């Protein structure tokens, strides 16, 4: 078997992005330094990749300016791509761009709340508390299902959402992304049909591509997934899973309606597929917000939770709740792949949940979010933007701007002015489609400079 070099992997990723329109004729590719930073490759690796593209006639070097996509660069086709890894690299590239913030750049498209919204958690205080008790357990692997104390607190947290579970129905993970990865590995084989929301959570699309799954998009409407399209898919295919977000949907900020949620549960029971309810933003919403996993009571659903956005992404603590049988299987898979999750991080979250301070933190967090959402919607109204829905409180708003047909062009216009946005095409499983929508983080939206830029356009 011929070994694929890092330069070849990078070149394959760039070929795919040229083919799907991420980079179009005349566009400049990232500089050598930018590409080295984004991918962690050496300078020689990047040079070899770019020279490979030049030898294929896809790009041309312009002295002192960089590499540019040549006119007439051919589109790529999935059948020409021999590696699932290469198909997933678009998502990896986009994730690197999302996670790296340039100095002085407004992270308008960022997926996280501002750090100052979370600083009142005082993680150093909890660390000292953990070190004072049970230090010896921190030097050993933890339970395959996760810290027992934390799982007991998660039972109480789920009960506040009207989801009944026992500690044996919960397995902890390294955040929600790790939870989704375990679920994909357990239930999806190459060629399997899986339902996803469109627009939806783009790192999930990369995981499914890597696994060789066949994704069927279900349009996301302001009140949840399009039931009519879903029923059409169910008549023609036999999907194993449907990945959804009941509330605080990423990227649209929409919440599912009771009617749609009840119908989803009925369809899951009738067609025997699993609803994967990704609820990573639960702490930003009232506990009473409806969730399909609460209606289903984990019979045909798996609930995914996380503390990355409400406490700290650095802790990497999430969890999956489901039937005891499925959680046992996912716990075994977790042990096989990772031995265990972090006892130290999980005990930190356990101590945080014991403190009444955490509830006060969530109240402040939701108050800030509600105020930012109101201000963001007002700003978008003033500049004449169209919004997908008007949530009372949501970390994200999904919007399109006047005279913008392709949000990628808006991205190119705003970057030199210091604003990084998340263009709509990256949130679709079919990323080659032109998309006028963009995801906006409400915490950074009410910016006078941004308003002035749009009023001048």
Automatic annotation (TrEMBL):
The GO terms describing molecular function are: DNA binding; DNA-binding transcription factor activity; pyridoxal phosphate binding
The record's section on PANTHER family has:
HTH-TYPE TRANSCRIPTIONAL REGULATORY PROTEIN GABR, TRANSCRIPTIONAL REGULATORY PROTEIN
Concerning CDD domains, the annotation shows:
AAT_like, WHTH_GntR
Task: Give the record's keywords alphabetically.
Answer: DNA-binding, Pyridoxal phosphate, Transcription, Transcription regulation
Which domain of life does the protein's organism represent? Bacteria
Say which family it is in.
In the C-terminal section; belongs to the class-I pyridoxal-phosphate-dependent aminotransferase family.
Chain ranges of the HTH gntR-type domain: 4-72
Q: Which organism is it from?
A: Pseudomonas versuta
Q: Which InterPro entries match?
A: Aminotransferase_I/II_large (IPR004839), HTH_trans_reg/aminotransferase (IPR051446), PyrdxlP-dep_Trfase (IPR015424), PyrdxlP-dep_Trfase_major (IPR015421), PyrdxlP-dep_Trfase_small (IPR015422), Tscrpt_reg_HTH_GntR (IPR000524), WH-like_DNA-bd_sf (IPR036388), WH_DNA-bd_sf (IPR036390)
Q: One matching Pfam family, short form?
A: Aminotran_1_2
Q: What is this protein called?
A: GntR family transcriptional regulator
Q: Which SUPFAM superfamilies match?
A: PLP-dependent transferases, Winged helix' DNA-binding domain
Tell me yes or no: is Secreted among this UniProt entry's keywords: no
Q: Which residues form a coiled coil?
A: none
């Amino acid at each position: 078997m011929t070994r694929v070099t890092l330069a070849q992997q990078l070149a394959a990723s760039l070929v795919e992005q040229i083919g799907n329109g991420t980079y179009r004729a005349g566009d400049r590719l990232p500089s050598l330094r930018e590409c080295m930073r984004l991918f962690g490759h050496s300078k020689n690796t990047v040079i070899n990749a770019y020279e490979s593209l030049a030898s294929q006639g896809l790009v041309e070097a312009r002295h002192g300016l960089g590499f540019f996509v040549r006119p007439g660069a051919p589109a790529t086709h999935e059948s020409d791509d021999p590696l699932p890894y290469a198909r997933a690299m678009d998502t990896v590239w986009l994730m690197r761009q999302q996670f790296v913030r340039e100095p002085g750049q407004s992270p308008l498209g960022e997926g996280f709340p501002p750090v100052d919204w979370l600083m009142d958690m005082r993680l150093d205080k909890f660390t000292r508390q953990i070190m004072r008790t049970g230090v010896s357990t921190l030097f050993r692997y933890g339970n395959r299902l996760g810290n027992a104390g934390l799982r007991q607190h998660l039972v109480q947290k789920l009960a506040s959402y009207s989801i009944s579970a026992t500690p044996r129905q919960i397995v902890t993970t390294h955040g929600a992304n790790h939870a989704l990865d375990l679920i994909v590995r357990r239930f999806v084989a190459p060629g399997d049909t899986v339902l996803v929301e469109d627009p939806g959570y783009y790192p999930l699309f990369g995981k499914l591509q890597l696994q060789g799954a066949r994704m069927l998009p279900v349009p996301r409407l302001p009140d949840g997934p399009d039931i009519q399209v879903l029923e059409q898919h169910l008549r023609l295919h036999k999907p194993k899973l449907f990945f959804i977000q009941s509330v605080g949907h990423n990227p649209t900020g929409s919440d599912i309606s009771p009617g749609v949620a009840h119908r989803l549960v009925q369809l899951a029971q009738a067609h025997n597929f699993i609803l994967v309810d990704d609820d990573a933003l639960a702490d930003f919403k009232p506990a009473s917000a409806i969730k399909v996993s609460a209606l289903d009571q984990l019979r045909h659903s798996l609930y995914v939770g996380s503390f990355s956005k409400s406490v700290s992404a650095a802790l990497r603590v999430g969890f999956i709740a489901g039937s005891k049988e499925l959680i046992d299987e996912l716990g075994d898979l977790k042990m096989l792949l990772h031995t265990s999750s972090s006892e130290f991080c999980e005990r930190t979250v356990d101590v945080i949940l014991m403190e009444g301070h955490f509830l006060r933190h969530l109240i402040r967090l939701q108050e800030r979010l509600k105020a930012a959402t109101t201000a963001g919607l007002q700003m978008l109204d003033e500049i004449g933007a169209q919004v997908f829905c008007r949530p009372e409180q949501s970390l994200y708003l999904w919007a399109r701007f006047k005279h913008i047909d392709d949000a990628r062009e808006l991205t190119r216009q705003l970057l030199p002015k210091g604003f990084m946005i998340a263009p709509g095409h990256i949130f679709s499983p079919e990323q080659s489609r032109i998309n006028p929508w963009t995801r906006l983080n409400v915490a950074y939206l009410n910016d006078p400079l941004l308003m002035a830029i749009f009023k001048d356009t």
